Amino acid sequence: MGINIFLFVYYYLFYDLGPQFEYTRELLGSALPWARAPAAVLNFNCMLILLPVCRNLLSLLRGSFICCGRSMRKQLDKNLTFHKLVAYMIALMTAVHTVAHLLNADWYTNSFQGRYGPLASKLSMLGDSRELNTTYLNPIRSNSTTPTIFVFTTIAGLTGVVITLALILIITSSMEVIRRSYFEVFWYTHHLFIIFFAGLVFHGAGVIKTFCLVSVQTSAVCRRVSSGKSVLTDFNLLNPRLQTWMWVIGPMIIYLCERLLRFIRYMQPVSYRKIVIRPSKVLELQLVKPGFKMEVGQYVFLNCPAISQLEWHPFTMTSAPEEDFFSVHIRSVGDWTEKLIKMVENLPEGGQGPKMAVDGPFGTASEDVFDYEVSMLVGAGIGVTPFASILKSIWYKFKDSDPKLRTKRIYFYWLCRETYAFEWFADLLQVLEKDMEERGMRDFLTYKLYLTGWDQSHVNHAMVHFDKDTDIITGLKQKTHYGRPNWDREFEQVRQENPSSVVGTFLCGPQALAKDLEKKCVRYSDVDPRKTTFYFNKENF
Q1: Which of 60, 240, 347, 431 has the CB geometry, 3.0–4.6 Å to 351, for a possible disulfide?
Q2: How far apart are alpha carbons 34 and 200 in whole angstroms?
Q3: Could you give the CA distance from residue 127 to residue 134 in angstroms, rounded to a whole number?
Q4: Taking a C-beta distance cutoff of 8 angstroms, is the pair 202, 93 a contact?
Q5: What are the respective helix, strand and coil percentages of the chain, to the nearest 5?
Q6: Residues whose CB falls within 8 Å of the CB of residue 268, separated by 6 or more in sequence, listed in order
Q7: What does the pLDDT look like over 461-480, one tens digit per residue?
Q8: Cα–Cα distances in Å, from 181 out to 175, 357, 430, 514?
């Protein structure tokens, strides 16, 4: 934000006070700096917009450098938030830049037609003597040229219209309701960024001219001209150089490398180890890819050419790094997932699934779970997938007596609307429950399951079987809770049971829950760093 403000103020003053634009300001007035200052800010933000979605670069920064500490990794995990903020700034500056240039087109026309006085009319006739008066301070050369015609007959105008339309489509299709319900619309319109950047590079082809003079006293010097102080022999008009490419070339090369790497991974073979249709229309795919290595909580992008060769969708892996395969759980939401599940359901007995391409793995906040002494894992619905990977990995670490395991305690919360959803990995919880009891570490894993979508029949059924040793829904010893967690009570309990620990709170769930948990982490963290401190982490895709 500081750099944005600096660029805007600097270039506003540069075009508002610069002597080389003295005559141009006579034609355009204050619309000149109001057009050029946002252009400088746009260059800077267009340089930044691609970097947060260069996931291989972020994974490299996140996991490869020792200097990337916990605070820096937390910022890298907010890459999509940063991407959106930069996009908002681009949208705002585009609006200001567009309005100012529309005023410029109108004022150029009025100046040429003599509506702003004799000085503006005379300046409109100034041409560049080096080019035999083919270039003029005022690009309007006919009384019949309207601002609309001017906009659609110049390189700057045409490219401006194209990139503005592309930007409008990109931003509107990125709204939450469209992205969630019509992901394909979001995916395809977002690729209009190619047209946006192509038009952006050529958009600066000069309409605004720099006025230079060659006088008897000084040669090829740009300076303010005051009547009687110089004997003018000729005028030079300098087109501004195309500068946008210098801002965006670096990020564009990095992004092209990302796409090249994705294509290479697309060509690598992927085989199926197992395909399972889970309750609640959840598809589990166990895949094998040569040389594939993962960490807990990471995610991959999947592409199914039989459905679309262009669409890539992110899925968190539910397998553990200790396993010789990687797995994903895919819930039926949207056209792509529905088509994939139908294709798998129609497979013949023992048939192989459709060809699948895999890009990744990529790092997330959940990678840091073992860096905390105490962890709170909160999953909502299918958002439990990264924690399935974590819990599996914990089981393997205990089984192998891994001395590097720093984690002393885990609190696991799973919120679901349907009873069938708990079957996704209730078996894993049963194995962990039994294993912790045998090792005398019953307190290591505290898990609570919450059924948020229920009716009176569920409650009546639970009351009838209340005295059973195991839960009627999951078969676990820990009984299912009805409703939503009382987070104040949960955080207070964790704080009391861990009076001098650093607690990592990890969420994979909706934004509303994220805001609530983030506030709780701040509220229940002690000012004294020697006491309990909560750090909030959220999965972002």
Answers
A1: 347
A2: 18
A3: 7
A4: no
A5: 50, 15, 35
A6: 289, 290, 357, 358
A7: 666 656 666 665 566 667 77
A8: 10, 24, 35, 21
* Cα separation, 534 vs 375, whole angstroms: 9
One-letter amino acid for residue 125 of the chain: M
The crossing angle, in degrees rounded to 10, of helices 244-267 and 55-64 is 80
Please state the separation of Cα 433 from the chain's center in Å: 37
Entry field: residues in the chain: 541
At 308, the amino acid letter reads S
Q: Tell how strand 282-288 and strand 271-278 pair up.
A: antiparallel
> Does the structure show a pLDDT above 90 at 42?
yes
Determine the angle formed by the axes of helices 335-345 and 183-190, rounding to 10 degrees: 120
Q: Are strands 374-380 and 409-416 parallel, antiparallel or unpaired?
A: parallel
| DSSP-assigned letter for residue 241 | P
Nearest to 412 by CA among 450, 381, 376, 373: 376
Query: Is the domain 269-362 a CATH 2.30.38.10 member?
Result: no
Strand arrangement of the beta sheet that strand 299-303 belongs to:
313-316, 299-303, 357-362
Of the candidates 422, 419, 487, 413, the one whose C-alpha atom is nearest the C-alpha of residue 453 is: 419
Token duo for residue 212: 């230079």
Contact 385, 297 (CB under 8 A): no
Residue range 309-361, pLDDT digits in tens: 888 888 989 888 888 899 998 888 778 888 999 999 888 877 788 999 999 88
For 365-538, CATH number out of 1.20.1560.10, 3.40.190.10, 3.20.20.70, 3.40.50.80 equals 3.40.50.80
Retrieve residue 301's tokens.
């992008």
Query: Do the domains 365-538 and 269-362 match in fold?
Result: no
Residue-level pLDDT at 492: 92
Q: Classify burial at 285, counting beta carbons within 10 Å of its beta carbon; exposed 0-12, middle 13-18, buried 19 or more.
A: buried
Domain borders along the chain are 1-152, 269-362, 365-538
Count of beta carbons in the 10 Å neighbourhood of residue 389: 27
The model's pTM is 0.77
